[in-house]
Amino acid sequence: MSKITVPIGPQHPLLKEPLSFLVSLEGEKVMDSTLRLGYVHRGIEKLAEQRTYIQNVYLIERICGICSHIHSTTFCQSVEALLKLKVPKRGLYIRMLLCELERIHSHLLWLGVLAKNIGLNTLFMYAWRDREIVLNIMEEISGGRVSHAVNIIGGVRVDLNEKHLSLLQKSLQLLTIRVEEILRSIQNDRSFQARTRNIGHLSLQDIKRYCVVGPVARASGLDTDIRRDAPYAAYNELSFEVPLMTEGDVWARSILRILETIQAIRLCTQIIHNLPDGSVSVSAPRRVPAGEVVSRAEAPRGEVFYYLRSDGSQNPARLKIRTPTLTTLITLPGQLKNMQLADVSAIIAGVDLCIACGDR
Amino acid sequence: MNIEKVVNKLQDALNLDKSSIKLMPMIETEITISKQQIFLAVRTILKSGIWHLSAITCQQLEDDFNLLYHFWISGGLTLRIELDEKNPQIDSICSLIPGAEYYEREAREMFGVEFLGLPNPIPLLLPDDWQNGYPMRKKEQSRQEKPKDDESQQKGQSS
After folding, report:
1. Tag placement on chain A: N or C end, fewer CB within 10 Å?
2. Is A238 inside a domain boundary?
3. In what order do the strands lie in the sheet containing A3-8?
4. What's the rounded mean pLDDT across residues A237-265?
5. Which residues in chain B touch residue A78, judged by CB atoms under 8 angstroms apart?
6. Touching check for A132 and chain B: CB below 8 Å?
C-alpha cells in the first residue's frame, strides 16, 4: 500500500494554536509522525533579560493564555526567594485560590476541546458553560478573565471582600454539582468510552523515560504532584488528594482531570474558609541580590520549572522556563504510532497541549 | 530516595571534593562536575532512583558559559558543567534519558552548544532557514532594545 503524508497544522481546525504535525499513513493507519514547534515562539526568555523584575511579572503572564497565573506565581516565588521576603499568609492564600480556580478553568476548557474533537458537541457546550462560572469569579476578583495580573513581587495586588466570598461560596457549590454531573455522565457514556479507551497509551516506563509530568503522568500511574511533594505557597496547610489512574490512555486522562477539578473545587472551599487576616503583600526592593534559584510549581498541566539568576542589577541575568507541555509533546509521535487517523484528534486533545507555553 | 544519599553516591563515584557541592534556596543542591563526567554522573543518578530531568539550562555570563542539568525527586539536584565558550561541546544524554532531546535541541539552536550524538539535530523553535546566529547569546540584542538614535527620530518627527 502506498504511503500518504497528511499535514496537520500549523493552521488546522483540530488545533487551537499553531503546531505542525506531518502524519504518514498507510491506509488509515498512522505509521510515523514528525513534529515542528516554534510558530508562536516569542523569545520570552531573552526579553526577560532586558526588563526589570517588576516589568517581567507582566511579561511572564503572557507566556500562556490559559495558565497565566501559575507562571507569574512561580516567577514571583523565585524572586521572593532571592530577596528572602516573607509573603503574608493572606497573600499566599489568595495566590493559591487563583491557582486552583485556574486549574478548574483549564481542565474544563480542555474537556470542551476534547469533546469537540471527538464530536460530542453537547459535552463541549456543558463544559464551556460551566467554565464561565470560574471565569466570572476571576473577573470579579481581578478584573481580567485570563490575564489576572494579581501577583506582585511580595504578595498579591487584590484583597477579597465579603462580596467576593459570598460569590465564591455560591459559585463553588453550583460548580461542584455541575462537575460531578459531568463525571457521572462521562463514566456512563458509551460513545465517550468508545472514542477514548485504549488510544494514545503511555506506559509508566515511557512516562519515566520521557520525564513526563502532570495529569498525563498521573493517568499512567506515576504518583507525582509538586503541591504535595514540595509544597510551595501554603499548600502544606491544606489537605487534598492526588487522584491516580493506571490505564494510561485518553480515557484515564479524562477521568483523572475531572477528579482533579473536583479536588481543586474542594481546595478553593478550604481556602475561603481558612482565609487568614492581615495584609496581602509586603513591599519589595527593586534590586535583587546576586544569586540563583530554581523554583517549581504545579500548573494545570504539571510541573512548571523556573531557573532565575540575578547579578544584583534590576534585570535578571538569566531566566529559564520549562513548561509542562514540552514534556508531553515529545511523547506524541510515539502515542500516534499504529493508531487510526480518526483517533489522532482525540489523542492530540487528550494530552492537553498548550503550544504557546511550549514555545514561549 | 533522599537527595543527600544521591549526593553522597555521586561524590564517591566521581571523586568530588566538598567545594563542588553547593546548597541553593528552595531545597536545591548544586554539584559542579566536568563535561567528561556527564555520562557517569547521569548513570549514577538514574541508578539511585531519580529519573526526572526537569530541564537543561544553558547560560552565558560575563566570564562563564555553562550547562545546568536540573533533576528532581521530592527535592532538586542540579549538575553544573562549565563549557568552553568558543567551542561548546558535550555528549548528548539522550541515550540515557530520551526526554532530554528537546532540551538539548533548544540549547543547541539558542546557544550553539554541540551535543555529540543528538538523535535529531534539526531546528525545534527557530525557522528552518535561520542564519542569524544564536539568539540567546549575550551579544545578540532583541530588536526592540537596539540603541535608539534620538536625533534622527526627532528629525523624522519634525519633517
Report:
1. N
2. yes
3. A3-8, A20-26, A29-36
4. 91
5. 26
6. no
What's the total number of domains in chain A?
1
Range of the domain at B31: 3-141
Contact B51 A307 (CB under 8 A): no
Share of chain B above pLDDT 70, in %: 85
- In angstroms, the separation between the Cα of residue A310 and the nearest Cα of chain B is 11
Q: How far apart are CA A75 and CA A284, in angstroms?
A: 14
Residue A8 lies in a domain: no
State whether ipTM is beyond 0.95.
Answer: no
A113 inside domain: yes
DSSP β-ladder status, B65-72 and B76-82: antiparallel
Domain that holds residue A247: 40-359
Give percent of chain A above pLDDT 70. Answer: 100
Which CATH number goes with the domain that contains A179?
1.10.645.10
Give the distance, in angstroms, between the CA of residue B117 and the centroid of all CA atoms in the same chain: 16
On whether residue B7 sits in a domain, the answer given is yes
pLDDT at residue A97, rounded to an integer: 92
B69 domain residue, yes or no: yes
Please check whether residue B101 touches A, CB under 8 A: yes
Mean pLDDT (chain B) is 79
| A176-185, B18-27, B55-64, B90-99: least confidently modelled range | B18-27
Q: Which residues of B touch A208 (CB under 8 A)?
A: 51-52
- For the ranges A58-67, A123-132, B17-26, which has the lowest average pLDDT? B17-26
B40-51 pLDDT, tens digit per residue, is 888 888 888 888
**B74: CATH:** 3.30.460.80
Contacts of A211 in chain B (CB under 8 A): 51-54, 97, 99-100
- Grid coordinates belonging to A221: 500511574
A168-182, A272-286, A344-358, B58-72 — most confident range: A168-182
Name the A residues in 86-125 with CB < 8 Å from any B CB: none
Edge-to-edge strand ranges of the sheet holding B76-82: B21-24, B28-33, B76-82, B65-72, B52-60
Residue A5, in any domain of the structure? no
Structurally, chain B folds into a number of domains equal to 1
Please state the φ and ψ torsions of residue B152, each to the nearest 5 degrees: -65, -30
